[in-house]
Amino acid sequence: MKEDVLEFLNSFCRMRLPLYNHLHAILTPRHYRKGMVILARGAICGEIFFLSSGMVVGLKLEKGKEVTTWIMRDGDVVTSPESFFDQKPSTERIIAVEDCTGWGITWVELEDTYAQFVEFNRHGRILTQGYYVRNLKHADFIKTYRGSEKYKLFLERNPEVVARCPNKYLASYLNVNPTTLSTLRSNLKKRR
């Protein structure tokens, strides 16, 4: 529901009624089927959306191999940051790994909202900061721990993501071999 998105934004900073009504009017439903390419590499990302349900992954090419750079699930905001904010061709693909529903706005609508409602810039800043810090923590996490440690810690911190995300994307996100990930999962199950 639209109200979920608006309450999510209100959790950062309470919106005044004119801004709330404006966002309520422009938020548009988004539906993506499992396996659908939401953004193709080379396309310009024209939208940002709140994921009400489902899971998506961001994939980039590194040394000719596609790697998972991020995983978003219900309650997250999804876009290709570099492409969306700079309005340039994307270097990544976004794929729905589950059926997804959400609410989105276009780049033009976002810029117009920032211009009309200066207070909304604070929401954008808080949201951007949060995802920036999350990305830095993940980069440190990948550098700090070995395969088995990474998987165990990620499982402790994100059991729902581990349960829902396909192995090939999760292995890539954790920077471990898919076979190694399967072995780690199997070994942990045997110990329980």
Describe the structure.
- This protein is an alpha+beta fold.
- The protein has helices at residues 2-10, 17-26, 81-86, 107-116, 120-144, 147-157, 159-164, 167-174, 178-191, and strands at residues 28-32, 37-39, 47-53, 55-62, 65-73, 77-78, 92-96, 100-106.
- The chain folds into two domains: 2-140, Jelly Rolls, CATH 2.60.120.10; 145-192.
- The protein is built from nine helices and eight strands.
- Helix 8 crosses helix 9.
- The mean pLDDT is 93.
Low-confidence stretches: none
Strand proportion: 15-25%
Q: What letter string, H or E per element, gives the SSE order?
A: HHEEEEEEHEEHHHHHH
Computed CA radius of gyration, to the nearest angstrom: 18 Å
Helix content: 40-55%
Write the CATH architecture name of the largest domain. Sandwich
3D shape? globular
Number of helices: 9
Oligomer, anyone? single chain
The CATH homologous superfamily of the largest domain corresponds to Jelly Rolls
> N-to-C terminal Cα separation, in Å?
39 Å
CATH class of the largest domain: Mainly Beta
Q: How many domain units?
A: 2
Major sheet: size, sense and barrel closure? 4 strands, antiparallel
CATH domain topology of the largest domain: Jelly Rolls
Given the helix and strand composition, which structural class is it?
Answer: alpha+beta
Task: Write down how many β-strands occur, each being a DSSP E stretch of 2 or more residues.
Answer: 8
* Main β-sheet, spatial strand arrangement: 1-8-3-6
> Overall pLDDT, averaged?
93
